[in-house]
């Protein structure tokens, strides 16, 4: 199934364009502060977020999984689904593959398919948190941190294989997330585990092409529930520095203990030039992988507020990799991803409306109240009209979710693929 430019164009023709008067109001209000609404619309139009190949089917938990019908059961079909997302939003022009869940059977065919949907290959994800039938050594007691040398070497080789596949596809980065850790005190020598991890990462790093980057993703717990070797931003930062300038940290929003000040972590890593990218999602308790902006939208805004400041002031930090990492237990995966893309663009647009000159002055004067008012003025601004204008300009659907439903995409996918097709992934 594919959505054509004409279908989107026709859909937009029937859409209510009253949002244009809102843009005039915003233009009038913010141009006085030297903020160009047209500039923001352009930035929104060129913003691209990588879609995780493992989040196009119904997710699940240990308590169950409820299929959704019409799920993609091959990498080709996953790219078709991302193609639909990109036709509707023009914000989903990249995919982040997970190996071995998405090993391309025919690299050239996969590249052609991706090109036909104008999809780029973003970060490749390795997987040393699951055993595979063909593997000799288990990862049950760790991979890169393992006391078992053969498990470490097997995991290093796997990451080198993922880089090799990524090079063929045109990807330029590798994400390493390790489940490695322990469930009980005494099970692990923390120092040996960390040193093994550092030494193993350096072996992977030595195989990284010159123009590639390696993202080290941290997580406090799960699937290990007492210790995780790369548990927090500091450990990831330390390991990235130990590896070299091509190694960066990766911030998955769900990988923080409750009440962690994630926006401060973002500011710190950007100042140090070591923020590589994001896995966007939202959570109430743990690594819930819920729709972006569905639980803590103000926190997402505060994170983008630091990102915008960093992108304007930290030339030492390279361009960021924007990715979603979510799991859909009760929503149509494509609708969930459309909502997440919307939330990301809204937070970005609001952060671009912050009057940074006035904020700097208020901070210099320690005018605490004014500082908050300046941030919340931007956060309390309804920017959805700017997103609509950006979509109109890029010939995306002005209202992607309504378009998705009016085109009856899920119904067509079920007619094509049936109700029992199942996507590989979590
Ligand atoms: C770990 C994680 C990681 C992926 C996995 C699918 O929780 O966030 O980024 O490998 O989810
Ligand atoms: Mn993640």
TrEMBL record:
GO terms for molecular function: isomerase activity. The keyword Manganese applies. The keyword Isomerase applies. InterPro entries: L-rhamnose_isomerase, Xyl_isomerase-like_sf. SUPFAM superfamilies: Xylose isomerase-like (SSF51658). Keywords: Isomerase, Manganese, Metal-binding. This is Sugar isomerase.
């Amino acid at each position: 199934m594919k959505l054509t430019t004409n279908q989107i164009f026709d859909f937009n023709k029937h859409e209510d364009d009253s949002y244009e008067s809102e843009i005039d109001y915003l233009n009038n209000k913010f141009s006085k502060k030297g903020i160009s609404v047209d500039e923001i619309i352009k930035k929104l139009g060129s913003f691209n977020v990588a879609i995780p190949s493992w989040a196009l089917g119904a997710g699940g938990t240990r308590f169950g999984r409820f299929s959704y019908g019409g799920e993609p059961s091959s990498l080709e079909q996953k790219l078709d689904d991302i193609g639909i997302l990109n036709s509707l939003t023009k914000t989903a022009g990249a995919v982040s593959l997970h190996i071995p869940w998405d090993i391309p059977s025919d690299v050239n065919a996969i590249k052609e398919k991706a090109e036909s949907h104008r999809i780029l290959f973003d970060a490749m994800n390795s997987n040393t948190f699951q055993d595979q039938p063909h593997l000799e050594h288990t990862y049950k007691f760790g991979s890169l941190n393992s006391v078992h040398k053969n498990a470490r070497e097997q995991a290093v080789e796997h990451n080198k294989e993922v880089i090799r596949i990524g090079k063929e596809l045109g990807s330029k980065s590798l994400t390493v997330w390790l489940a490695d850790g322990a469930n009980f005190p005494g099970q692990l020598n923390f120092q040996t585990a960390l040193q093994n991890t550092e030494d193993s990462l350096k072996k992977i790093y030595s195989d990284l092409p010159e123009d590639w980057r390696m993202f080290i993703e941290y997580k406090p717990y799960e699937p290990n529930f007492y210790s995780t070797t790369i548990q927090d931003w500091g450990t990831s930062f330390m390991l990235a520095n130990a590896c070299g300038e091509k190694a960066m940290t990766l911030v998955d929003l769900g990988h923080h203990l409750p009440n962690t000040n994630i926006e401060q972590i973002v500011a710190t890593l950007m100042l140090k030039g070591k923020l590589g990218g994001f896995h966007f999602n939202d959570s109430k308790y743990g690594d819930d992988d819920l729709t972006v902006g569905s639980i803590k939208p103000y926190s997402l805004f505060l994170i983008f507020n630091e990102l915008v400041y960093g992108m304007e002031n930290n030339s030492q930090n390279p361009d960021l990799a924007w990715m979603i990492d979510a799991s859909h237990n009760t929503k149509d995966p494509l609708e969930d991803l459309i909502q997440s893309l919307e939330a990301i663009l809204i937070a970005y647009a609001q952060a671009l409306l912050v009057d940074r000159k006035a904020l700097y002055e208020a901070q210099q004067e320690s005018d605490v109240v004014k500082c908050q008012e300046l941030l919340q003025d931007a956060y309390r601004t309804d920017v959805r009209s700017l997103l609509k204008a950006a979509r109109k300009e890029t010939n995306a659907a002005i209202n992607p979710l309504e378009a998705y439903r009016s085109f009856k995409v899920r119904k067509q996918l079920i007619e094509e693929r049936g109700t029992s097709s199942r996507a590989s992934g979590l």
